[in-house]
Amino acid sequence: MQSSPLHNLLQKHASTFYPVVNFDPLKNHLLQLDFTAANTKLTSKILADTNLFTQYIQELLNEKYTYGIGGYAENRTIYARSSKFDGEEPRRVHLGVDIWGSAGTPVFAPLDGHVHSFAFNNFYGDYGATIILKHELEGIIFHTLYGHLSVSDITQLMEGQFIRKGTEIAHFGIPADNGHWPPHLHFQIISEIKRNKGDYIGVCKYSEKEKYLFNCPDADLILQMMQYSVKV
User: Fold this and answer.
1) For residues 201 and 95, is the Cβ–Cβ distance under 8 A?
2) What total of structural domains would you count in the chain?
3) b or e along 125-158 (b: 16 or more beta carbons within 10 Å of the residue's beta carbon)?
4) What is the DSSP letter of 224?
5) How far apart are CA 69 and CA 1, in angstroms?
6) CA 207 to CA 152: how far, in whole Å?
7) Who contacts 55 (Cβ-Cβ below 8 Å, separation ≥6)?
8) Is the pTM of this model over 0.70?
C-alpha cells in the first residue's frame, strides 16, 4: 500500500514527539501481544468475561513487562466479544496501536494540539471515555485519538482547548470507564476525520482495510515503541 503524505510527514518528525506513555527502553520491557486467530490460548470463555480477560493480560505481563503492545492492521478475533462489531461483514481489522497496562497509567500529548472533541462511548466493547486532539504540522492537519480512558479525564475538557506537547491529558481507565476492556490505551492517528466528533472507528471491515489504513497510518510513527517489543 502506498504511503500517505501524513505517514511520510510523521516519519520525518519521528524523533520530535513526546512519549505518549512513560517508557524508558533502557529500563522498561514491552511484550508484543497477538490477538489474531493464531493465539489459541485466548479462548472464547476468557473473552466473554472482562475479569478473566484482565487476568489473562496481567499474567502475560507478569511484572516483567511494563506494557503489552501491538495491534496495528491486525485481523483480530477479540471483537467477537461485542455486538458493536457485528454485521454482514464483521469488523475485525484494528486501526490503532494498543498499549496494555495498569489502570491509572498516565497518557501524554505527543505534540501541541487542540481538543477536537471528546465523549463517553459507553457501549460494551466501545472506547468508553475518548479524547480526540487536532494537530497541525508543516501545514498538514491531522488528529490523534485516545480511547479507553478514565471518565474523570473528560469532565473538565472544552472543545478548542489548547494542549501543549507533553501535557498529561488522561489515564488508562478501569473497565467501567473504558468500554469493559482490560485497562489499556487505544492510540490512533487519523488524517481525515470528516464530521466525526468524540468517536472514529478503530476497527474496520477487512474489505475496507486499505482505505482505512491509508487514512489511519501506523500510530507507532508517533509512539516509536514497537522497535523495543518482544514476542514470547
Assistant:
1) yes
2) 1
3) bbbbbbbbbbbebeeeebbbbbbbbbeebbeeee
4) -
5) 23
6) 37
7) none
8) yes
For 41-73, write each residue's pLDDT tens digit.
999 999 999 999 999 999 999 989 999 999 999
- pLDDT level of residue 224 (50, 70, 90 thresholds): very high
Q: Could you tell me the residue range of the domain that residue 49 belongs to?
A: 5-230
E-assigned strands of 87-218? Answer: 91-94, 97-100, 106-108, 113-121, 128-137, 140-149, 162-163, 168-171, 184-190, 203-205
Q: Which three cell numbers stand for residue 96?
A: 490503532
DSSP lists the bridge partners of residue 172 as 149
Contact 173, 148 (CB under 8 A): yes
DSSP lists the bridge partners of residue 188 as 145
CATH classification at residue 190? 2.70.70.10
Calculate the average pLDDT of the chain. 96
- Listed in sequence order, the DSSP H helices in the chain are 5-12, 44-47, 50-61, 209-215, 220-223
Residue type for position 87: G
| pLDDT at position 2 | 67
Q: What is the pLDDT of residues 157-186, one digit of tens each?
A: 999 999 999 999 999 999 999 999 999 999
* 9: its cell numbers: 510527514
Confidence class for position 1, pLDDT limits 50, 70, 90: low
Q: How far apart are CA 8 and CA 16, in angstroms?
A: 14
